[in-house]
Each structure stands twice: as C-alpha cells, then as structure tokens.
Amino acid sequence: YLDIFSSGIKGIFLANRKIDDQIKTFITYNKGRDWRLLQAPDTDLRGNPVVCQLPFCSLHLHLQLSENPYTSGSISSKETAPGLLVATGNIGSELSYTDVGVFISPDGGNSWRQIFEEEYNVWFLDWGGTLVAMKHTSVPIRHMWVSFDEGRSWSKYSFTSTPLFVDGSLVDPGIETQIMTVFGHFSLRSEWQLVKVDYRSIFSRRCNKDDYQTWHLHNQGEPCVMGERKIYKKRKPGAQCSLGRDYSQTVVSEPCVCGQGDFECDYGYERRSNNQCVPAFWFSPSSLSKDCSIGQSYLNSTGYRRIVSNNCTDGLREKYMAKMEKCPGKAPRGLQIITTDGKLVTEQGHNATFIILMEEGDLQRTNIQLDFGDGIAVSYANFSPVEDGIRHVYKSAGIFQVTAYAENSLGSDTAVLFLHVVCPVEHVHLSVPFVAIRNKDINITAVVWPSQAGTLTYFWWFGNSTKPLITLESSISYIFTVEGMNTVTVQVAAGNILIQDTKEIAVHEYFQSQLLSFSPNLDYHNPDIPEWRQDIGKVIKRALVQVTGIPDEQILVAVFPGLPTSAELFILPHKNTTERRKSSEDDLEQVVEVLFNALNQNLVQFELKPGVEVIVYVTQLTLAPLVDSSTGHSSSAMLMLLSVVFVGLAVFLIYKFKRKIPWINIYAQVQHDKEQEMIGSVSQSENAPKITLSEFTDPEELMDKELDTRVMGERQPSAGACFAV
Q1: Contact 122, 105 (CB under 8 A)
Q2: Which of 18, 104, 373, 477 is found 20 to 30 A from 411 (Cα to Cα)?
Q3: Contact partners, residue 682, CB within 8 Å, separation at least 6
Q4: Contacts of 364 (CB under 8 A, 6+ apart)
C-alpha cells in the first residue's frame, strides 16, 4: 500500500495500492480484513450519467495529507463530522493527475458525488456542519463558496474587492469556529495581505431539535461495522443554522452478534479463496506448544482471531476463539545453535554467547548438553538455565565445532555450529623478489603477525586485475607475462579485520645481479628497520648513477635485513625486445662491467652523516652470469658457484676474527621469527651463485658472551598473545 488514510471512524480506512503497475484506491470497514474498490458517482456535476463498471472502472482518490498547515490537502475529514469525506481524485481504471475533480461522501465512503471539476481546498466550519471551498490556483481570486448541505449546493461569496494571490488560509482554533483568515498578496511585488472572514452573519439562527436527523453507519447496507451498530445525530442538509458550542453527536452504539467478518486470520495463517484460514507454508501450528511442559495447558489457536477493537459478542466468537488445551509430550525437534550477535566469528579471549533454540519438545523435561569443541562441555537438566545464553571464552584460535544435544524420554536431537575463533591480525608483510623473470614462476609470501592468528583468508591482486585470487594459504606462485614494473597487493581478512600490503616487482626477460657489502662503520648506524633500508637503497642507487652515468631505470638496489649490512644490486636491460636480444645482452654485459670496475676501485661511496663516509664493495670477485628464463646450468656457472662459496667462507673467517677483537663493537639483531622483507631475484640460485646472509653469521654465535651486542626492535610476547590449535 502506497498511501493510507483514516476516515475518522473506527475501522474505516482508505488506501492506494499498486496492482499491475496501476494505482487504485480501496476502502475497508473492518480494519483491513476486506478491501474493495470505490464505486464511482452515478452522474457527473452536470447530471449526465457516468458509465463506470467495477472492477474495470472505479473512483480513485489522492490520499496525501497537506504538509502545509495553511492548505487543506487532497483529502480531509473531521471526527466531529462522522461519515463526511472530501477528496481530490478521478474516475477511471487507475489514479491519475489529469482530469481531476473534487468528490464528497456523506456516508463514510459508501457513495460519492462530484462537487467541483477542478482542484479546490475545502475546510470544515462549525463542527463540520459547514463547508468552505476556495479554488486551488496560481491566479488571483476574490470568491469562496459555502455549503450547508454536504456539498449539494454552494453559495458564492466575495471575501475581497481586489483579486488576491492566495497563499493559504487558516481556520481559527476551535471546531465550532465560524471565522477564517485568508492571507496572500495583490501582486508579486506587493506586501502580505491578511483578510479575516466572519461567517456568523450568514447563519440565521441556532439549530433546534427539528434541524437534526439520525444517520446509521453501514457497510453497503450492513449495519454492523467493527461489531457495533452505530447511530449518529447530524444536521439536516439545507438547515442554515449554527450548531453552536453545546452541539453533541449523541451516538447510539450497541454490540452486534459476531459473524465471520469480525474475525481475521491469526498469526501464521492465511486466507484461501474459500474464505478459510489455513496454516502458511512456513508455519507449524504445533510450535505453539513448544514452550509447554507435560501437565500444563496452553492457548491453542483455531487459525482465527477477533479483529482488534471489534466489539462483537456471542455468535461465532466461541467457535473461532483460541482454546485452552493440555500440553502434549513431544520429542526434541528443530534444535538450533546461534550466537547472540548472529555472527559465526568471535575473538580469542572474548565471551562467546550461544543461544539454544528448539521448535518442539518439553523444555522443562529435556536435558541439554553443549560441547564447545575445545575439550570443554556443559550439561543442564532443562532449558531454564540456558534461556539467557551460555557464555564461553576460547583460549586459542581456530575453527571449533560446537555441538548441542537435547534429549528427553521421547527422543533426542542434535545441532552443530562451526565457530571461527580469530586473533586480530596487526601487521602483514609481503615478501616478494625485487626482480622476476617473465613467464617464470615466482613464490610470493605474506607474513602475518601474530603468526598464530587462526584461519585467515588471503586476497591476491596482481597488476591491474579486477578480481583477486583467493587462498587460505599464506604463499602463492604466480607467472608474470608482461615486462616492466608490476604491482602485487595482498589483503588478509580475519573476522571483520582487513589489512593489506603492496609491493612492486620488476619483470624482465633477463637481468644480472651482484651482492654488495659495505664498510663496517655502516653497521654502527643500522637500526634494521624497513624505512631505513629503503632510504639506504635509494642512496646507494644514486651514488652508483653519479659515478657510472648509467640510467637509474637500469639499477635496483635491495638492502637485506640483519647485520652485517648487505645488499643486492640488480642490473636491468635498457630495452627488452626479442628482436635485439643478442645486442641487448651485450649492452647489459658492458653495463655490468662498468659497475663492477667502479665497485672494485672503491669509487662508489656516500656520506651517511657528517664525518661518516661509507664505501660500497662488491662481494663477488668476478662478474655474475646472466639470469634469464633458460633452465640449463653451464659449467662456467658451476665454477662460479664454487668460487663464490670459497669467497664466502673467507669472508666468514674474517668476520669471526674481527668479532674476537674486544675494542670493536658489533651490532646485531636477534630476529624474532621474521621473514626477510626483500628476497633476491627469483630463480637466481639456478643460474648464478649467491651468498645468503646465513653464510656470514650463525644466529647462535651472535649470542656469545664475548660479543657486545645491541638488540633492536625485538618484539616481546604479550599476555594476550594468540595461540592456534
């Protein structure tokens, strides 16, 4: 229903309803139990017959009340004028905003007459016994119409000598009032004008008993409406007298015998075409006794209930009213487990409250057992202790199968709920290679803290993809097919928490790389945080470009976590084209040679701060081979691998020797199960030797008593640390 209007008489409503894309007006006399279309007037304003056959044609009304207190709105009525309705509408198959007129019903909507062919504002004066109408128009007017016979005839009066643009009218307070104030302006530029109209002079006298008649409220001839027979006292049409302050409606009301029309379908029932109320498909009548115990009684519905505010007595009342019946014994059925917030996710260490529901069964004689799935279970002799919920705190993260079991002497039932217990994730770090080979698998890992956060969902976004790859694992393999800088984003979802990290990978057909080391003074100033490593990588790259003149787009520098400080230098081709592959490889070799010579001659250095000059060295003593998509290992590469391993052992011995010197402080960081935030190029180990950080130092040796260490950024375990099962 789009609009609904109360007529002022109990149980009578008008409503606009949309049916098959058409808006039609309906009326009810029993508070919505039955609705019917409005019968159009038999004749129009000129007395010509109106051809309008139900249900194809009827009267339709605009039911909007006025938001402006100075206009009457499209429909109006008064409780002091019972049965009198005035509304704007049209005759036809549906409600329309064209060909509208004003219609009046003197008998509560049973019959209608047209009183105006255009839109008018209509007000009730003198307890509703007098009607005042004013044309609703944008042009200036000077006349109004008054009716004493419920709109059958109208007298024309002039309320101003000069036409007035009427902006509104206000009836003075008091329902017996006979004074009206009209306000507007004579022109668009003139000031406001107020005109007070006093209608007392047009009433010849006060009404006496001979000026009244009785009116019987009815519904198409049926005298009982809402279980009552009502008789009202109204002024006779045409009696030009004033009702006055002492007017009384003198309503006579007596109850009617209850009939079928006084009852509507009860909750869970619906009316069929034979006018019978039957259970809806979703409703089980036996559920009315679900809270009932053996030996007690419950109110069993017959499928009917008396309409609210209906005052009928006797008749069918005894047949349709609900009956008291003994509670039947039932086995548990329809057992359910839900959480109080309706969610299947809770946080570790917080209260999870479970509600147990049962469609059928003796609540007082049914044993309940609830297994929380973490080795803890509770039992209750009946439902009374669990009505407010059962609380439980999970001490570890994971997915738990919560099982409820209900049993009485007649049977049993089981329900299961899978609850996700999560520990809020605080940080995610995306571990990706700086450089990858086109059309070759790379491994990408998301490192989440805390590590025992329970079940997590990973959303992986690659490049400009519009749909993510979704996994339950923290690692994924991926092949990049487009050269250039590619973006990787991971989003980690835990309950209602979502965090993400984004990294860039340079994808090329081939590249070369060198491991870099630094003068020891850099270690003294290394806080071992990602931001510092990124800044140092930019400084090293800028120093390499300044010394060698190589374009910066051909150089990438990745500084590794931990001590001693080390990095990897990636040398990229200037242009990757398959037609010039051979010449591009030769160009790349020349770039590598220039960089290698500059590093070997200690030409690459930078000032960390005033007085602190850091020299960049190359760890490998020979040029590294080309890294590309080929799968075979050359003999030269194997020799290179052996030579680099030898060099690594030599560096390790030198470093160990240096650690024994007591006046040299070595700063180290004890890693707390942390992944490197930047790893070397993918497939580097297949084609080129590489010295990893583990070859420089053993974590256990960093704890030697003679070593003067400084532990930076170590994360201490908190009391609320997460654990997973």
Answers
A1: no
A2: 373
A3: 433, 435, 436, 437, 440, 441, 442, 443
A4: 293, 382, 383, 384
Contacts 24+ apart (CB under 8 A), 159-168: 159/195, 159/197, 160/195, 162/186, 163/139, 164/140, 164/193, 164/195, 165/138, 165/139, 165/140, 166/134, 166/140, 166/141, 167/70, 168/68, 168/69, 168/70, 168/71
d(CA 326, CA 366) in angstroms, rounded, equals 18
**How far is Cα 507 from Cα 480, in angstroms, rounded to an integer?**
7
Report how far residue 85's alpha carbon sits from residue 69's, in angstroms, rounded to the nearest whole number: 19
**CA-CA distance, 137 to 119, in Å (whole number)?**
8
Per-10-residue mean pLDDT, the chain, length 725: 83 93 94 94 91 94 79 81 91 92 93 93 83 90 90 90 87 69 86 86 83 90 93 85 73 91 94 91 82 79 93 93 85 89 87 88 84 94 79 90 92 93 86 90 90 84 90 93 91 86 90 90 90 91 91 89 91 65 74 87 89 87 57 42 48 44 32 38 36 34 32 38 57
Backbone angles phi, psi at 597, to 5 degrees: -65, -40
Token pair of 643 as six digits: 């030579």
d(CA 491, CA 502): 9
Question: Is the peptide bond preceding residue 564 cis, with omega within 30 degrees of 0?
Answer: yes
- In 236-389, DSSP assigns E strands to 241-242, 252-255, 263-265, 269-271, 277-279, 297-300, 304-306, 323-326, 336-339, 345-347, 351-357, 367-371, 377-380
Q: What is the SS3 string spanning 18-50?
A: EECCEEEEEEECCCCCCCEEECCCCECCCCCEC
Tokens of 202: 């047009």
Which is nearest to 185 in space by CA: 198, 199, 168, 170? 168
Q: Alpha-carbon distance 1 to 74, whole Å?
A: 18
One fold for 260-326 and 427-507: no
Nearest to 443 by CA among 676, 637, 626: 676
Q: Provide the 3-class DSSP secondary structure of residue 287.
A: helix
Q: Report which secondary-structure segment, H or E, holds 548.
A: helix 530-548
Residues contacting 104, CB < 8 A, separation 6+: 84, 85, 86, 87, 112, 113, 115, 150, 151
The pLDDT assigned to 516 comes to 92
Q: Which two tokens stand for residue 289?
A: 């006794």
Residue type, 28: T
The pair phi, psi for residue 165, each rounded to 5°, is -75, 105
Label each residue of 619-637 as H, E or C.
Answer: CCCCCCCCEECCCCCCHHH
- Distant-in-sequence, close-in-space partners of 463: CB < 8 Å, separation ≥ 6: 480, 482, 486, 487
Task: Give CATH for domain 260-326.
Answer: 3.30.60.270
DSSP summary character for residue 191: P
Residues 18 and 2 sit within 8 Å (Cβ to Cβ) = yes
Say how far apart CA 494 and CA 580 lie, in whole Å: 49
Q: Which superfamily does 336-422 belong to?
A: Immunoglobulins (2.60.40.10)
CA neighbours closer than 13 Å in the CB half-sphere of residue 1: 15
The class (CATH top level) of 427-507 is: mainly beta
**Residue where the block lists tokens 């009932």:** 292
Helix (H) or strand (E) holding 582: helix 581-600
Length of the chain: 725
Q: Who's near 435: CB < 8 A, 6+ residues apart?
A: 505, 506, 507, 508, 511, 513, 556, 570, 572, 681, 682
